[in-house]
Write a structure and sequence with these properties.
The protein has 198 residues and is mainly alpha-helical. The protein has 7 helices and 7 strands, in the order ββαββααααααβββ.
Length: 198
């Protein structure tokens, strides 16, 4: 006869707790997060020399929440993490990448039924990312200051919006000078979708 499914337990305040939720640690959340990145083929996941997975924005989470139980990572604890990173001079954008990863860790654990709830994680306010866009006059001035070998790639990036990795990975058969087009194949862009640049 199959074993009955384990039921969620009830805390004194009426909050539901998943079976074994008290055992789930930050390290367990992170391990599942990395496995999800690996199985989805995310390009930002790197490996250390010893083969362990690595994302730069996880390092500070690891340092702060080392050996914490997931149930103890509360909204207050997250605010203390943010305060510590801000006091260390970290940018709000850098802090937000770590917070987004932490949110994903909890979301995956909830999807897997390992925990029932996640803490409220509020992102820092970032300046408008478009604030640093070059106008054409500034671009022309920049070109005069660059060494010759960078002028071509920077010009291509300015006119097409292509990323450095996309430009560096271009092959001759992707460039059609007569049609004045560049073709990126599926899997060569950040979102894994192909594209045609004119």
């Amino acid at each position: 006869m199959p074993r009955p499914q384990q039921c969620y337990k009830l805390k004194a305040n009426g909050e539901l707790i998943a079976p074994n939720a008290r055992k789930i640690s930050h390290e367990d959340l992170r391990k599942n997060f990395f496995l999800n990145y690996k199985t989805k083929g995310r390009k930002s996941l790197r490996s250390r020399k010893d083969g362990t997975p690595y994302l730069s924005n996880i390092r500070h989470l690891d340092n702060f929440f080392k050996q914490w139980k997931a149930l103890n990572i509360t909204a207050d604890a997250v605010r203390r993490f943010v305060d510590k990173r801000q006091n260390a001079g970290a940018s709000d954008a850098s802090i937000n990448r770590a917070l987004a990863a932490l949110k994903s860790m909890f979301r995956l654990a909830i999807q897997d039924g390992k925990i029932k709830n996640a803490p409220h994680i509020e992102l820092c306010k970032e300046p408008n990312a478009r604030g640093g866009v070059l106008d054409y006059g500034a671009f022309k001035k920049l070109l005069t200051e660059l060494p010759g070998y960078l002028r071509g790639p920077v010009t291509l990036a300015f006119h097409t919006g292509m990323r450095l990795g996309e430009i560096a990975g271009l092959k001759r058969n992707q460039v059609d000078l007569k049609a004045r087009t560049i073709r990126l194949n599926a899997g060569e862009t950040k979102n894994d979708e192909g594209g045609l640049f004119r």
